[in-house]
Amino acid sequence: MKQDTQSHHQHHTDLTRRTLLQSLAGAGLVAGLPLVSPLSAQAANNKDKRILVVLELSGANDGFNTLVPYADDAYYRLRPNIGIRPNKVRKIDDQFGFSPGMAGFERLFKEGKMAVVHGCGYAQPSYSHFTSAAYWHTGAPNTGEPYGWLGRVADAIDPALTPNFLVNIDERQSLAVRAAKHVPVVFDDPERFTRKGLLQSRPLLDSVPKSVAASATQNYLDGVANSAREASQLVRAAWANYKTPVDYGIISVDLPKVAAMIAADLPTRLYYTSYRHNAFDTHVQQSEVHQRMLTYVSDAVSGFMQDMERLGRADDVTVLVFSEFGRRAAENTSLGTDHGTANHMYVIGKPVKGGHYGKPPSLTALDIGGNVTYTTDFRRVYASLIDGWLGADSKTLLSGEFESFPLFG
Amino acid sequence: MRLFQAPTLLILLGASLLSHAAPTSWQGNLQPISKSEWNRERAAHLLERAGFGATPEEITRFAAMSPTQAVKTLVRYKSTPNPLPAFEHSGVHDAGLEPFATSRPAATDLARDTGESLGVKVKPEGNRRMQQVADRFLYWLRASRLESNRVGYWWANRMLTTRRPLEEKMTLFWHGHFATSEEKVRDYRKMLLQNELFRKHATGNFRTLMIAVAQDPAMLAYLDAAVNVKGAPNENFAREIMELFTMGVGNYSEQDIREAARAFTGWNYQGLKFVVNPDKHDNANKTLLGHTGNYDGVQVIDILLAQPVTAEFIAAKLYRYFVREELSPELQKELGDVLRKSNYEIAPFLEAVFTSRDFYSDASVATRIKPPVELVVATYRKLGLKTVPGIPDFNDLTESLGQKLLYPPNVAGWAHGKSWITPGLLLARGNFVYDTVFPPIAFVPTDRVPNQFYQIVPVAEKLAMGIDVTTATKPEGKEMSSMSMQGDRDEDFNTRLASYHAWRKAIEKVKPIPRAYAHLNLTGMVQQAGCKTTQQAVDYLLLRFLSVPIDSESRKKIAAMLQAELGTDDLSRAETYMEEALRTTLHVILSLPAYQLG
User: Fold this and answer.
1) Is B213 found in the same domain as B255?
2) Nearest residue to B588 via CA among B560, B547, B567
3) Do B403 and B288 belong to one domain?
4) Which of A238, B72, B288, B586 is the most exposed place for a label (fewest CB within 10 A)?
5) A370: domain CATH number?
6) Is B100 on the interface with A (CB under 8 A)?
7) In terms of domains, do B114 and B181 share one?
8) pLDDT of A5 over the 80 cut
9) Which residues on adjacent β-strands are paired with residue A327?
10) Closest residue, chain B, to A336 (C-alpha)
């Protein structure tokens, strides 16, 4: 796996967006860039500072071995070999406990900064990673919705199309950020998010020529080229100037990059990142590798939260963690788990009212495929974030009414 | 000689100014185009799609044929002699490595229990008695990965130099269709065998290929065949064969998957051979897709191939890869009929597609975003290179662009189309061109010097200074989080020491990838084409490399830059010093968004 373990050099910095831009302008790097976007200039309204970071655990994380229902005998009957024993789990109450390596999640829950939403899924579930992920990305199961739910949110809350409003850190763009109007900024390694070119060729490299007979694909390429030009210098400078004493653990799932952009005060309000490459698809001998990956996730998310405190932005940032589906209730004969249905969603942050939401699905009333039945439509969590955090109208954006949970104060 | 070349340029440039727009009625029309409709532009389009792009000389050769002949030459390639070297193994494998442990703990636990593992005996006494077992486990992982990179490099050279471009292109197509990754297989030998399998059946019969893939050790390893046994079927392969290999999602039930999985029970591999274990095979009746019987895997494949959706699914996937992303349900059905009527023979299907008016319609021509491997190979081909440069590294380069051979991202393979382009990736594509015309001088070969990720170099340096193993292998820097000390807890071996030993042993055996720069001669290229002025040179390069014309204002601006660099617009005056400026110009041209299209 190529996901990096970024460590950061230690020289001090406290650059604001303004000084950052000044230093860039001084270096002649931001010619043609609007120095202050109209929206961030009038960020008096607090809602305009609110940021949502979405972390996808690709491959379908095994929720039952993440937040273990250790008081439920049925769990141990279903998982005689890979069930995590009560004395090993990190108990958060008399029903549930986190996987042994998830000290960070345990702490966040106990501090009241984590909402666990139980039994999240949807009707007529797909067991295909790709289909189900598309349903979660669009927030529109069993339809042909072409745009991602975050792409639609961006178009709704930022009609001015602020550059760098929607950022996706990955090798390729997620369907979740695909928008009708916004062009998401998508990059993987900030240090490589730059164009090489000799000085004399710069003006040509930076202009996007008109094609003679532009096809739809050509127009798409031109749009991406413009977005790249506007974003790359800001992102790279943000990363170069970001130093943190906080330990994000071994696989940081790109959260330090998000922190760097927040530290640089970019106008981004929607970030999307993932634990990549179907890593959580644990069909075979899962215990050791699954616990290790959860440790990475827990370390990275709690590190990110500490970093937000350090930056004074903890009140402005919420993190959503999800997977495209859960895994089967029973273990399989290869000491792993197969594709399942309902799963937890985690909403994490200082502004979040922590605790349990939704009803844990029953482990004794499984369907014919050995799966639990979902108790919470996952779009209720999207609605809670759209209405309660981002200040948009979920009814329009999700094409239907999904009752919000009172996740925010 | 140049006297004869000049008219060539005029013909080429003249052709580029003519508009060869096809009638709109061609879109969706599978009727073959006629000989009178054949021209240079269409020959270039064919070579772009059925191969990896072409030089003007190759285009001229194909333009002189009839469209039927041109397509036949590419598709029925078996008669074209193509002497290319077989992969040269470094010799990293030995029998003691079989069967390879599923994990490092499995290897060392076996050593603890039996006194031996991976062909290495445990030391009778002393410290770190199982160190050599841990070393050997990691040795194979590193050696197999490095050798896989050599396979990727070898394959890239085939793509560049082959006289049967469609053979390699179809091999690449099947690699994406039957996606299998060394990341999980952990055995380059299996990956190479699979690659040869794809090549052997590249344009052959889909049924034959599907059965061969279902019995292919790399695929069996990738989709967990070893644990699919009677009484405890593992659904992984059965699900993917229906969802990704034959029918497509939504055309079968979960019950069909469970039943199909039972039919494949007992299929496994031993070393590099397919085996059926009769004791592990479920011999009871299975019911799927309306059929009931005591099926085995081959019979299930036949049931899947008899589904009308399967021919349509495969036909549409080929079409999307070779022609364009969007196709109407009617066209999809028609294409499915073509494939079904050919009895799943791929070659006649491709011939039908490549000769169709639809293939040459405006909706198809120059609308495809080149996948990274094709972008890189096509660039080298059009530059006239005879070998893939070692700098930049082909595998690292294509990986950073989103496509590494032998490492598809997941079971669905590469997504293609717009997914290849993000702001970050678009810049990276331009940077690839920069690194081709101005190769990095501080290049570090990652097949010798370990990636920082492994943190091997600091360990090696400390040991050389006489520092004890525990101190030398203590993680550097900040206090580490919960799990990172795991390796040091076990007294029987030290995993960070093993990591260092394994790397050293691996690079001792694995042959290095040759690290030569590209030998470019753009001066010779524009001179041979008969270019006299900077504008002609720019127009020639645009025509040679791009499939899409750009506006005249941009053409003039690029020529103005070249002229400013040369201090003249007269190429003969600048003959002795124009290479550097031509390279700068080529970088600009190949950084155009339009260069991503083919």
Assistant:
1) yes
2) B560
3) no
4) B72
5) 3.40.720
6) no
7) no
8) no
9) A339
10) B234
